[in-house]
Each structure stands twice: as C-alpha cells, then as structure tokens.
UniProtKB/TrEMBL annotation:
<comment type="similarity">
    <text>Belongs to the sigma-70 factor family. ECF subfamily.</text>
</comment>
<keyword id="KW-0805">Transcription regulation</keyword>
<protein>
    <submittedName>
        <fullName>RNA polymerase sigma70 factor</fullName>
    </submittedName>
</protein>
<dbReference type="Pfam" id="PF08281">
    <property type="entry name" value="Sigma70_r4_2"/>
</dbReference>
<keyword id="KW-0731">Sigma factor</keyword>
<dbReference type="Pfam" id="PF04542">
    <property type="entry name" value="Sigma70_r2"/>
</dbReference>
<feature type="domain" description="RNA polymerase sigma-70 region 2">
    <location>
        <begin position="24"/>
        <end position="90"/>
    </location>
</feature>
<dbReference type="GO" id="GO:0006352">
    <property type="term" value="P:DNA-templated transcription initiation"/>
</dbReference>
<dbReference type="InterPro" id="IPR013325">
    <property type="entry name" value="RNA_pol_sigma_r2"/>
</dbReference>
<dbReference type="InterPro" id="IPR039425">
    <property type="entry name" value="RNA_pol_sigma-70-like"/>
</dbReference>
<dbReference type="GO" id="GO:0016987">
    <property type="term" value="F:sigma factor activity"/>
</dbReference>
<dbReference type="GO" id="GO:0003677">
    <property type="term" value="F:DNA binding"/>
</dbReference>
<dbReference type="InterPro" id="IPR013249">
    <property type="entry name" value="RNA_pol_sigma70_r4_t2"/>
</dbReference>
<keyword id="KW-0804">Transcription</keyword>
<dbReference type="InterPro" id="IPR036388">
    <property type="entry name" value="WH-like_DNA-bd_sf"/>
</dbReference>
<dbReference type="InterPro" id="IPR013324">
    <property type="entry name" value="RNA_pol_sigma_r3/r4-like"/>
</dbReference>
<dbReference type="InterPro" id="IPR007627">
    <property type="entry name" value="RNA_pol_sigma70_r2"/>
</dbReference>
Length: 180
C-alpha cells in the first residue's frame, strides 16, 4: 500500500475518493470482519456491523484528522459500531447487554459459520463474564494479535492500563476454565 498520508489524501480527494475507498474496503474487510465477529459472534450480524462500519468511515472521512493511524481510527469505528449493535439489540429485547451476550453465545453453537470446538465455546462463555473493556482488550490481543500500542490507539487507553486489563482478563478466564 502507498504511503498512508498519500492514501488519506486520495480518500479525501473527490477525484480519487471512490477508487481509494474501494481499496480501503479490500484491505480492511477481512481483518475488520474478524474483529467484529469476535464481538458480535454471529456471521449475519457481523456482516451488518461491517457494512455500517464502512458507511460510517465513508461519511466521516472528512473529519479524520490524522492524529492516529487510519487503521486505528477505522478499528475504533468498528469497535464502537459493534458495541452499539449489542446495546441496541439488548434494548430492543428489553434485557441487559450481559443477557444479550449470553443469548449470542448460546446461538453461536447453532451457527453453521462457527467452527469452534468445545474449548472455544468455553472460552466464549468465559469472555462473556468479563467487563467490556477486558473483553475487548483480550479479543484484540488474543484473536487479532494486535500490539498494545495499536489497541491503545483504538481504545484511547494507556498501554499500562491495557496490560493490566489483559492480565486480569487472562486470570479470570483461567479461573473459569479450571472450574468448568
């Protein structure tokens, strides 16, 4: 990919914007799908959130200041869209976001697009018990293999705070897996 500043300039230039945005979609679609899928769990829901993410990115490109990397900015939008999706689903159902996450995990077992085994299902159940921030940090570090610096930019949190969140998440997951 070309230099990020040039790419951002192409995204903001009306003459090159459409082609640059298609390139952005091509390059970010798979990693964003994987990221969103770890949060919303369901394939169809992931596709919906991914589409909403790209719409938001396109609508807000003019507001991108370049204070963070484009990657971090797009991931932050995807993360926020995923959380918003879960909260809206919970609100529509008249239940808490924790209850909706439990339902999502139970539905995961019936999802034909999910190929996890029993230990993966236990991991998902353990993750659902974590506070939201610990969940996000663990999923980004463990599943996406993002660096703490990248997660820091995405979530707007210090690296030290992220390491502590990850440490606590791992301990809680280990405890859950040992008990179940």
């Amino acid at each position: 990919m070309q230099d990020e500043k040039e790419f951002i300039a192409d995204l903001l230039n009306p003459k090159t914007q459409n082609e640059a945005f298609r390139r952005l979609v091509r390059e970010y679609q798979r990693p964003l799908y994987n990221h969103i899928r770890t949060i919303v769990l369901n394939h169809d829901d992931t596709d919906d959130v991914l589409q909403n993410t790209f719409v938001k990115v396109f609508q807000n490109l003019k507001n991108f200041k370049g204070e963070s990397k484009l990657f971090s900015w797009v991931y932050r939008i995807a993360t926020n869209e995923s959380i918003t999706f879960i909260n809206q689903r919970a609100k529509k159902s008249g239940i808490s976001s924790e209850e909706i996450k439990d339902k999502m995990i139970n539905n995961l077992q019936a999802d034909v697009d999910y190929d996890g085994d029993e230990i993966q299902m236990k991991l998902q159940k353990a993750l659902a018990l974590l506070p939201e921030k610990q969940q996000l940090v663990f999923k980004m570090k463990y599943f996406q293999e993002l660096k703490y610096e990248e997660i820091s930019e995405i979530l707007g949190t210090t690296v030290g705070g992220l390491k502590a969140s990850y440490f606590h998440a791992v301990k809680k997951i280990e405890e859950f897996l040992n008990k179940n």
